[in-house]
């Protein structure tokens, strides 16, 4: 199985300074994956990124917004179009850094669609909150949307986007809200308790694309077993009905139990189980065509490097055993980069991949109500029975 990893160290230049979205999480991910041999597996190709051109960015973003990003990249103090805020501070070189990430993700999607690679990953990407005309939620350009636009340009008629970041994938949903060729599925913490305040079950697509958006809004405190129950109760059914030609997954790791910006309770073991489920679905419904990006994740040492190393292992071959020790050299680097942060000794938190399959009415808790709300809102568009667990 060939896997393209679009990566070079210039992608670490997306650096907002003293900010939660610290590029050290990507540096530590790539170092861990390399030391564990994931990047040296047969069939793995590492390709440097090339920046997205203005024409590529304009498939999603307004030209006036791109011009403002460029102006802010020179050091000018700009406070419009979502820029210059605490969430989205400007920095010198911002346009170039953002365009490079976008180009990396676009290239990953292009390679998979054209058959140059069976799977591809852009681990620095996943900036899913950026809107066509403004920055939002730490995101300047929406690289998943630009990548999906490229696949559509190349002739795709059905692309599924599955977002497992703790925050709703609002920017991608907005871009494709009225496009029946793209199904956006997002599992996230409830918008009642977390940014961006969207992603309710009744958000199901625009008038030209009813049923093109599926939202699973999970209650705070959802753990591995409950998250996986919700995933398997909703995602396989809609993907099987939609039959995408390519699966794009945004794999933000901020569902982690110790993430400082959110309130779900997953372990890296639960996240690993999600990646395995996504791989199986890509093989089943999309002929194996799978593109993955990173996303959020603010437990910079404790979670993100392990989670995304598991992701790349699943994409490139055999999943890593959770008992695998983290290399001493990696632990030393992590301790130098983030003094005082807890440094994991193994690739596991002692969590698991088990879950209780959803049966209506048998687990009448908040997660069960979430599942039912999503299925009632979305399933009829696919000709599926919201109450039948076989769908």
TrEMBL record:
Annotated keywords: Acetoin catabolism
GO molecular function: histone deacetylase activity
Domain spans labelled Histone deacetylase: 19-314
Pathway info: Ketone degradation; acetoin degradation
Gene3D superfamilies in UniProt: Histone deacetylase domain
Pfam families in alphabetical order: Hist_deacetyl
UniProt cross-references to SUPFAM superfamilies, sorted A to Z: Arginase/deacetylase (SSF52768)
Signal peptide: none
Classification via InterPro entries: AcuC, HDACs, His_deacetylse_dom, His_deacetylse_dom_sf, Ureohydrolase_dom_sf
GO biological process: acetoin catabolic process; epigenetic regulation of gene expression
Record flagged with keyword Cell cycle: no
Family the UniProt entry places it in: Belongs to the histone deacetylase family.
Matches recorded under PANTHER family: HISTONE DEACETYLASE HDAC1, HISTONE DEACETYLASE HDAC1-RELATED
Protein name (record): Acetoin utilization protein AcuC
Naturally occurring in which organism (per UniProt): Dactylosporangium matsuzakiense
Lineage: Bacteria, Bacillati, Actinomycetota, Actinomycetes, Micromonosporales
Gene (name only): acuC
